[in-house]
Amino acid sequence: MKTNLLSSIVLIVSCHFFMSAQQTDNALESELAELIKTFEGDVGIYVYNLKTQKEAAINADTIFPTASIVKVPILIEVFNQIKAGKFHLNDTLIYDAKRVYGGSGVMQFYKDSTVTDLRTLVSLMITMSDNTTSLWCQELVGGGLTINKTMANLGLAHTRVNSRTEGRTQDWETYGWGQTTPREMASLLIKMRNRTLVDAAASDEMYRIMSNSFYTDYSVSQIPPHVQTAAKQGMVDQSRSELVMVNAPSGDYVFYIATKNNTDASWKFDNKAWKLQRTISSYLWKYFEPESDWKPAAGFTDLVKGIKY
């Protein structure tokens, strides 16, 4: 009991120190406000530089839909239960074709009774944003209520799973599968990078998984390919959001760009929310790495703009 009490005190003191150590980067915050002022929809942004401990926040505590970014909390709970001994990454699982769920991902095309494993599920869930594996993982860990309890234990008041979760029908109708704030979701990736989310080994493995995003057309496209990023995207018609950590030469920085109530609900390359994400990501790279002369190649747009979703 004394050990648990001491641990709690240390955690509270550490959180207090972290919050008090943060300073607002007024210049960055002002420029971000300029970049979003003509956007037709609601925008929330949180940026934090892990080296300088400075932040920039615009509507950073406003609740936004997560869409597929809810898969990050699901991932965390999987590793939380792996630590508890309930699962192992290499546990064998048998795919049942009844699990088919449309949208993004490839497991929906597996043959019935295909042998797979938990590592494949979590990897596809994050890298390919696979919906079928995500719902399977959510089920394996005990559902949304279990995941939400872990989010609450991490001190997050608004980051929650809504879909297939008892008592959250109204939240699901408002926000969809999940909900969060820019500051809260960014805090999860900061903890992961600092090796304090679940434990060091789990943090490292989760970060490796998040460093292999398939969706590089958005914010990640504005960062040099030789610089590691960890990212997750969330997309529905009127809400496009993105979580990114950049392991930049001058120091790591994380950002979360959230949008909702977007007037542009198209699924073309030049969707206004996706253009905004690229613009902000490009600005952040130049802001934090002013000596870098890298920029996307002239042929980038031609490579990807013809993609049909």
UniProtKB/TrEMBL annotation:
GO terms for biological process: beta-lactam antibiotic catabolic process; response to antibiotic. The keyword Zinc does not apply. It catalyses: a beta-lactam + H2O = a substituted beta-amino acid. It holds the Pfam family Beta-lactamase2. Gene3D superfamilies: DD-peptidase/beta-lactamase superfamily (3.40.710.10). Residues 1-23 form the signal peptide. InterPro entries: Beta-lactam/transpept-like (IPR012338), Beta-lactam_cat (IPR045155), Beta-lactam_class-A (IPR000871). Keywords: Hydrolase, Signal. This is Serine hydrolase. Residues 44-259 form the Beta-lactamase class A catalytic domain. PROSITE patterns: PROKAR_LIPOPROTEIN. It comes from Gelidibacter salicanalis. The keyword Hydrolase applies. It comes from the Bacteria. GO terms for molecular function: beta-lactamase activity.
